[in-house]
Amino acid sequence: MPDSELRWNIEDLIPHRGRMLLLDDILKLDTEAAVSSTRVKATWPLVDGISVSSLILVELAAQTCGLCNGLGRIHDQGENSDKKGFLVGVKQAVFHVASLPVGTKIITEAVNRFKFDSFREIEGVSRVGSDVVCEVTLQVMQASDEDNEQWAESRG
Q1: DSSP 125-148
Q2: Domain at 3-154, CATH from 3.40.1110.10, 3.40.50.1260, 3.10.129.10, 3.40.50.300
Q3: DSSP letters along 29-49, please?
Q4: 64 φ/ψ angles, rounded to the nearest 5 degrees
Q5: Which of 118, 122, 134, 147 sits CB 3.0–4.6 Å from 138 for a disulfide?
Q6: Is residue 47 within 8 Å of 102, Cβ to Cβ?
């Protein structure tokens, strides 16, 4: 992976903002795979004040793969392109923990395993230290131009 790929900010690559932006850092990035790092925050969705449900690991995989898909979009359509994607299915999920305490550092790797037109199948693995805490296979669709226009209009 060229070092120049790490020049991107997370916000350049995915649309998430505020408390729904779960990622802290990009560790590795190219147009097919990404690795992210984050720490569980008390402000995240699904946090009960002490820990977060392991279901959040599905979103971590989706956002991590959004990094490489966002990079691919920029390479294909330019920096000012405005494409959103939708998580349309969880094909498989294996959770090795029920929850993660606030402050836990999570490393997530996500890879595009299958592409057809705007459809992607993603494999994601999240780790805490050397322990695998979640393995998921997700299905995502890139939004059409019409979907993007409707999304932009709904945001005012």
Answers
A1: EEEETTEEEEEEEEEEEEPPHHHH
A2: 3.10.129.10
A3: E-SSEEEEEEE--TTSTTB-S
A4: -65, -45
A5: 122
A6: yes
Determine contact, residues 30/68, Cβ cutoff 8 Å. yes
pLDDT tens per residue across span 32-55 = 999 999 999 999 999 999 999 999
By C-alpha distance, which of 107, 154, 156 is closest to 127?
A: 107
Q: Which of 49, 63, 53 is nearest to 20 (CA)?
A: 63
3-class state of residue 91 by DSSP: strand
What letters, b where the CB count within 10 A reaches 16 and e where it falls short, cover 131-142? eebbbbbbebbb
Helix, strand, or coil (residue 5): helix
Tell me which residue of 19, 110, 114 sits closest to 64, measured CA to CA: 110
pLDDT one-digit tens code per residue, 127-137 = 999 999 999 99
